[in-house]
Amino acid sequence: MVDFAIPEEAQAVRARAADFLDTHVLPAEARVGREPYFDIVAELQAKARADGLWCPFVPVEWGGMGLGPLANALVQIEVGRSFTYLGAWALNCMGPQDATMLTLIEHGTQEQKERYLRPLVAGDLRICFSMTERAAGADATGLRTSAVRDGDHWVLGGEKWFSSNASISQLALVMARTSEQGPRREQFTTFLVELPNPGYRILRNIPTMDEPLRPRFEDEVTSGHAEVRIDNLVVPHANVLGGVGRGFAMGQHRLGYGRLRHGMWSIAKAQAALDLAAGRALSRETFGAPLADRQGVQWMLADCAERLYLSRLMVLHIAAKMERGQDLRQENAIAKNYIAHMLHHVVDTALQLHGSLGYTLDTPLAEWYAEARQQRLVDGPDEVHRWMIGRGVLRAFERDGTTAAAAGGDLL
């Protein structure tokens, strides 16, 4: 069962994170686009370190706060209130940094931890994840980038698509096919690749629908999703992460945490959008009466509140299962799919209630709307998650004679 009483220590760390966001991060967002982004980040990181707010999810022995899943979830919901991602960079819990740190902690060799994990936790390195390929899309077992062993090294060749943050990273985690034999999920391996490297060539940052809406200082690159050409990329065998043939498992380990983190940030953004919607309804008059008095408008707000409430319950349940080390693949897939749609619905509703104003850039809603659309694609599109969820339902019935285990049955 889930205990909905949040422990005092978790409440306290959330309050500290909220105060840091309100005092330092949110005021700094007005500077984004006017000053170099990572100058602002460096300033905020120094303050976060001084306040003891650093890498919330990383164990203390590796330089983090050592928070459990529930406390970290609460902190991430606060971090998600920073819509220029300054909050995440400030606490050094930005994707794909965060999930890769966790994978290194659990699966890295001691040498890899010393060489890569420590500087990642210290904020001295940025890392990208090069898994996706244009032809394979959401099918991680359809990747064609190859890796061939040559003595103590591997030689990689192929292409990657949507390698987030590649243009600003000094390290890449690259997945490649190392065998054509055996089970499909055991044909891949992940490699730690130091950048820049002539064998890892960034062709461009792929233009996306939300990019023109972001404030930018001159021509500064602060993130982006890169198209990459890999040609004769030589990687030491010592840089294999998790073992040969374990690449698919490494990718899923990373994505599991990333999907939950996306959900926590989406809750924060949806709450802000609902606040804007309610404020607009209460302040605007149409046909001689407040917009808020319209039953149809109240129903629109009710739908948003219902979905936001369910999303919070999902995150609490998943955090509780993580605390106990339980299998949460089914719940994580359900939550990833549901919360992405929730965010899209709430932001769309807020934009609709603002009328033509919502379609302008005088409010943040247009930017949030464009950004929210990506949540139904990143870390696996809707259709793949629904497929996985449905398979889980069928497996539960075959095993138990009931589908309860695949539909939150352990709650009751």
Describe the structure.
- The chain is of the alpha+beta class and 412 residues long.
- It has three domains: 8-94, Acyl-CoA dehydrogenase/oxidase, N-terminal domain (Butyryl-Coa Dehydrogenase, subunit A, domain 1, Orthogonal Bundle), CATH 1.10.540; 127-245, Beta Barrel (Butyryl-CoA Dehydrogenase, subunit A, domain 2); 249-411, Butyryl-CoA Dehydrogenase, subunit A, domain 3.
- The protein is 48% helix and 14% strand.
- The protein has twelve helices and ten strands.
- The strands form three sheets. A four-stranded mixed sheet has the order 1-4-5-8. Strands 2-3-7-6 form a four-stranded antiparallel sheet, with no helix packed on it. A two-stranded antiparallel ribbon has the order 9-10.
- Strand 9 (285-286) and strand 10 form a beta hairpin.
- Helix 1 (8-28) runs antiparallel to helix 2 and helix 8 (295-323) packs antiparallel against helix 9 (329-353).
- The longest helix has 37 residues, at 247-283.
- The chain is globular and about 80 Å long.
- The mean pLDDT is 94.
Task: Please give the alpha-carbon distance between the first and last residues.
Answer: 7 Å
What characterizes the major β-sheet? 4 strands, mixed
Q: Unreliable runs, pLDDT <50, ≥5 residues? A: none
Counting structural domains, the number is 3
Give the CATH class of the largest domain. Answer: Mainly Alpha
- Give the fraction of residues assigned to helices: 40-55%
The helix/strand class is: alpha+beta
Mean pLDDT: 94
What's the helix-strand series? HHHHHHEEEEEEEEHEEHHHHH
Q: Beta-strand percentage? A: 5-15%
CATH topology of the largest domain: Butyryl-CoA Dehydrogenase, subunit A, domain 3
